[in-house]
Amino acid sequence: MSDKKMMLACYDVSIRYKVGDFKNIGLKEWVIRRLTGRYKVVDFWANRNISFSINEGDMLGIIGTNGAGKSTILKAVSGIMVPTQGRIVCNGKVSALLELASGFDADLTVKENAYLRGAMLGYTRKFMDKTYPYIIEFSELAAFEDRPFKQLSSGMKSRLAFAIASLVKPEILILDEVLAVGDGAFRAKSEAKMREIIKGGTTTILVSHTVAQIRSMCNKVLWMEKGRQIVFTDDVEGACDCYEEYLKNRSIPPKYDPVAARARIAARVAEKERKAAAARKLVEDAEKMNKVREILRQSKVILSNETVGDLKGVR
Amino acid sequence: MLPKRFMKFFLKIMEYRFLFEELVKRDFKKKYKRTVLGMGWSMLMPLLTLLVMKLVFEQFFGRKMDHYTTYLFCGNLLFSWFSESTNHGMMSLYSNSGIFTKVNLPKYLFLLAGSIQTLINFALTLLVFFLFCWLDNVHFTWKFVFLLYPIFTLMFFNIGIGLILSACFIFFRDIDYLWRVFLMLLMYGSAIFYAIDGFSPKMQLVFACNPVYRHIAYFREIVLGGTVPSLEAHLVLAGVAALAVMIGAFIYCKNNTKFLYYV
Fold first, then answer.
1. Which of A242, B35, B65, B78 is 20 to 30 Å apart from A55, CA to CA?
2. Residue B90 in domain
3. Could you tell me which chain B residue has the CA closest to the CA of A175?
4. Is B76 inside a domain boundary?
5. Contacts of A102 in chain B (CB under 8 A)
């Protein structure tokens, strides 16, 4: 594990927001509030002491309930925000897809938007010229190429966004709730594409509320709750299990307990096996029954034949 | 340290050239896509203002003046560029907040891309201006080349003011009302349709402190006076442009990561 190059690391990162009525108030209102002392701004820690590190080719899943600070830490990683405390080290080009469908321009066509997005992600015109046909093909939007963006459905928008982000080749790819988009067929396709990207060595961070997705795709997981880090581990199954347990029963404090998790997983596996065995037994029983029935039927036929013969003999 | 910063700045511009081009294209498409006359409409505005001013003010101020139409047009030309460019620039950051809160990129690109559009608009109006000069029998000389200088400095002045305003607009949304009021004041204070000779020396000094008026005066001196303005005029124009850009750049540097908390 340590022979791989470290791509991204957060050391004890904390991010503080200002909340309060400082937004949208305008200069006049601001002056009046300042003078009357009614201007209130409250500090709000969106992230506290988050630490993690990922290596080349890793896929990190970030889980947590709404408002856990997942998007905030991603914004810090992609450089949009600066951590109030702590340090972020990043050894590669980050391509972030936060809240996908936004950031597109409703009046431009699909093609123009694709180029604009490509430019935003830091690619060259040459590269976009070369990649654009693939993007259109992958997102299945060939028929809509010259339509203004506002005429597209939200699923189509996300499809395009995903296609652009995944077909270009970033070193670190950040996906925030991306795979939850599109219909079932596209979702399968995008998951397959993601697997391909990971195999290609791209380091990826995936935020998802679909725990099954995290289980099947990630090799590391970061669980956050209310801005705090519950755990960062490569025991994906264990952490996801604890998280699901917490989701089921919100009154217990969120806690990662590897031993309990392992026990639960083992119990689940045992339960599964028990059920499988029972099912197998049922099948076997059914087969036996069928055999018995078959034999019975055949003997009945013989019997009836004999009866027929007997009747003939009597005549 | 400053040259190093400039180098960094230019490298960044080169790095984001593709994005810059796409943003310029987007602005053009959004503005002109679905209009038949396209850019013609945006040239119509200064021409209409010119017409109204000529009709209203010629009787009062134009009697003693030769080439009053050209005199008016000089003022209108530069002032309408300034007001369009700053109004456009003010919204440039806010209207792109959907982008810079999601992707990390240099935020001044939006303003620069927008200013290309107003610059082209201005260039077209300038052509009409020369046409009017010709109709007004203005004597064209080689000194007209010097007109490039105030155009150049006013462009930077516009960008600087645009930077300041766009940052302020993020923090205080009522800046645009205040700015509109200020622009109106500035229009009446820039001697667009009157001459300042009649004012007291003290008042003339006030006019001299108005950068937009200085640009207009420079223009008039070449077009109507046929003389190249003094070295002092050149220095003042360059000075105010540099000052505006520096203040704007400073605000952007200082608040680069704070803008997104306000949108």
1. A242
2. yes
3. B102
4. yes
5. 98, 102
